[in-house]
Amino acid sequence: xxxxxxxxxxxxxxxxxxxxxxxxxxxxxxxMKLPTGTTVQELTDNIYFKKSDQIGVTAVNGRLAPPxxxxxxxxxxxxxxxxxxx
Length: 86
Fold this sequence. Notes:
The protein has about 90 residues and is mainly beta. It contains 1 helix and 5 strands. It has one domain (about 5-80): Roll (Ubiquitin-like (UB roll)).
């Protein structure tokens, strides 16, 4: 991926990714660069390809984000798992 074709993001997740990601610590922000035009769904599929059904809420810059949201440079993405109980 060319540096000009990538955007820097900050990601924080309360669910372990399907594969190890450099810098990942549960609940702590980490930096990642992705191709320009990446959507929330594509990011989710990239990190949680086996357990995307366990994502309860995805927020971009503190706001609920639908899957088709296109990510922009500097966005902060938070992944929250489904909550158990009732």
